[in-house]
Write a structure and sequence with these properties.
It is built from eight helices and no strands. With 146 residues, it is mainly alpha-helical. It is elongated, with a radius of gyration of 15 Å.
Length: 146
């Protein structure tokens, strides 16, 4: 997958609003994490997002931020868990399905990546063109060399 597509997915994840707002403490931790991430302090941001999730495990917004940063830090398995937590609270969150698909792609699980992308496409038809390109790439990889 091209670096530009990866960056597009990451930005989409970090900037997405996911509905229900957490309490003031969680908001402060998320804002702190955003500042840290913007400053390139990714480990500190990961800790802030992790603290926000620990404080409010059901927060889709906190889980989405944590999952996006875990994805960036190549912590694919834990990012999948946090994307699944988002989906458990917001089953119509197409961005969580996209993020989960990216993690599955990096783990080489093309079947689960494809399924997640198909669900994202169903939930948000505006993503259809971008998702179709990734699905085509998956199909080419799955087919192997000719």
């Amino acid at each position: 997958m091209g670096r530009g597509l990866w960056i597009l997915f990451y930005v989409l994840l970090l900037l997405s609003g996911t509905g229900v707002r957490a309490g003031d403490d969680v908001d402060a931790l998320l804002e702190q994490g955003e500042r840290q991430a913007a400053a390139g302090e990714l480990d500190a941001a990961l800790a802030s997002y992790g603290a926000a999730v620990a404080q409010d495990p059901g927060s889709p917004r906190a889980n989405m931020k944590l999952a996006g940063l875990e994805l960036l830090k190549q912590q694919y398995r834990t990012s999948i868990e946090h994307f699944q937590n988002v989906i458990g609270h917001e089953p119509d969150n197409a961005n969580a399905f996209v993020g989960m698909a990216v993690a599955y792609l990096h783990l080489g699980d093309y079947g689960l990546a494809r399924a997640a992308l198909m669900e994202a496409q169903r939930l948000d038809p505006q993503k259809q063109d971008d998702i179709a390109r990734v699905l085509q790439w998956i199909d080419m990889r799955a087919a192997g060399p000719h």
